[in-house]
Amino acid sequence: MRHLWTTAPQLLDELYEQTTTQGQWPQFLSRLAGVFGSETATLRLTDLHDPLVYQSHTTGFHQATNQYYENQAVDRDPFRDALASADLGKVLTSDQIISDQHFSASHHYQFVFRPNGNFYAMGTQFDRHDGQGLHIGIHRPHRKGPYSAAEAALLEQFSPHFRRVARLSRLFGDLNQALEQSRAAMDHLAFGAWYMDAKLNIQWMNKTAEEVFASRSFRLELRGNHLTVNAPQSAQAIRKLAKSLVERKASSETVRLGATGASLLMTLATPAPSSHYHATRSNGTGILCFLLDPNQPNPVNQRHLKTLYLLTPAELRLVSLLVQGLDVGESSAALEISPHTARTQLKSIMQKTGVNSQANLQRKLLICSHLLRTTHD
């Protein structure tokens, strides 16, 4: 057994890598087993009460033997109950649980340990959560003798780190699930939406935006992950307004995309100030973009709008056009009202919704569009 302080730093680095790297457990288990002169090790997620294995990673184990254990022999494992009832993180050796004589005659030895050339083991259950337990086990042949108290103490040094990695993995899992749910929700939007930095590098986009860039609609396309506009006037306007946003000269800006009738609404998306430290990919300043195309209407639920903001029928009609990207002049023409009347209605709408510009009004309606979209029962 090599000394802990010569092996622990690199092993701990590899252990914490498991929180963000999928499929690396066998390599870590192999290195950990090697510290103890062993060739096989397992990491299993099991039920605390029933003989069930939910997930397992192994190194050095014959695949057929491992499958037999998981499917048929868990309930005959003499170590399972002892690990589940021990103090969390406490390392037990196999000779503490069962005598060599009794283990030699056991089903577990004959059909699980013996095919892999093992006899002695040590392990610990280091995490328990929602009726499930995570435990790690290391095994070696009879000729190498039982694991010593010093070896058990060495493995026990890793228990708090195993536990933290398990908790971090759950947090990352919850975060990834939330991101996937958010992505799925964005994919249901009828309009393109994406998030980019001040240099127009896109970090994520919804499915509609992907289709727009793939077809180069509105002369928008991606080069790498960089937004490119093949219309000099529009490209210059987007860069100028993006600069205005990140310099906080405005919170929302709208730019027309040539003569297509479509427009791009860009809004500053910066996390609220916090006293806590956050590790991020950038300085946190980003731009949330919505592509509005009058030819692909995005109807809003007027009943919800009326309930939320007490808008009049005339104001509701105007809002329905504004949220499609039309400006006041185009909306007034479509509604066959004067521009003055449309501007008066817009002023009233902004007062009721608590915004100070048409761009901010569009931003507010689009961000909560999952509440405002018309539903079809």
Describe this structure in words.
The chain is of the alpha+beta class and 377 residues long. The chain folds into 3 domains: 170 residues, GAF domain (Beta-Lactamase, 2-Layer Sandwich); 100 residues, Beta-Lactamase; 81 residues, Winged helix-like DNA-binding domain superfamily/Winged helix DNA-binding domain (Arc Repressor Mutant, subunit A, Orthogonal Bundle), CATH 1.10.10. The chain contains 17 helices and 12 strands. A 5-stranded antiparallel beta sheet has the order 2-1-5-4-3, sandwiched between helices. It has a 5-stranded antiparallel beta sheet with strand order 7-6-12-11-10, with helices on both faces. The longest helix is centred in the middle third of the chain and has 29 residues. It is elongated, with a radius of gyration of 31 Å. It starts with a helix and ends in a 5-residue tail after the last helix.
Structural topology:
Layout: H1 4-17, H2 25-35, E1 40-47, E2 53-59, H3 63-73, H4 80-85, E3 92-93, H5 94-97, H6 100-104, H7 107-113, E4 120-129, E5 132-140, H8 149-156, H9 159-187, E6 192-196, E7 202-205, H10 207-215, E8 220-223, E9 226-229, H11 232-246, E10 252-256, E11 263-269, E12 286-292, H12 302-309, H13 313-322, H14 328-335, H15 339-353, H16 358-367, H17 369-372
Antiparallel strand pairs: 1-2, 1-5, 3-4, 4-5, 6-7, 6-12, 8-9, 10-11, 11-12
Helix pairs in contact: 1-2, 3-7, 13-14, 13-15, 14-15
